Amino acid sequence: MIRRNPEFVRSKEESQNGTFFKILLSIDVSSENMRALPHEFTKSFSNKELSGRKMKIRAQWGSSWEVGVSKNPRFYVMEKSGWEKFVSDNALGHSEFITFTHKGKMWFTVNIFKQDGKEMMQPPNHVEDDKKEEVVVSTELS
């Protein structure tokens, strides 16, 4: 009977747990180059493990997106529809810096840093209860 070496299995999993980043500019936020997965990341996977698979991207606040992965003649890319949903839902495209950390089985956590360098810790358009303001408009007829 052949037994698996748990240290080898863990080592292989760790080699597939990588981090990469993207800087999103409005000019090319949906371009194929922007949606490309880095070669250094994808080379640790077989074609079978990547082609036709879906990445699951999860933000700090718990929202998640499924983004398909496909291969063009040169590299693997995140499919446009899922990528654009992620970008749109997070109001991205204004020079944000995003890190993608692979947690295994094509699950990723993302950290989004705005242009001012601060990390986005909640979804866009989120207004905290203590910061809400009530605006009263009155009109008087004379």
UniProtKB/TrEMBL annotation:
UniProt keyword terms in alphabetical order: DNA-binding, Nucleus, Transcription, Transcription regulation
SMART domains in the cross-refs: B3
Domain of life: Eukaryota
One Pfam family per UniProt: B3
Annotated spans, Disordered: 120-142
Ranges where the TF-B3 domain occurs: 20-116
InterPro entries: B3_DNA-bd, DNA-bd_pseudobarrel_sf, Plant_B3_domain
CDD domains found in the cross-reference section: B3_DNA
Residue ranges of coiled coil: none
Stored SUPFAM superfamilies: DNA-binding pseudobarrel domain (SSF101936)
Basic and acidic residues: compositionally biased ranges: 126-135
Subcellular location: Nucleus
Transmembrane spans: none
PANTHER family in the record: B3 DOMAIN-CONTAINING, B3 DOMAIN-CONTAINING PROTEIN REM23
Protein name, entry field: B3 domain-containing protein At2g16210-like isoform X2
Source organism per UniProt: Camelina sativa
Name of the coding gene: LOC104718674
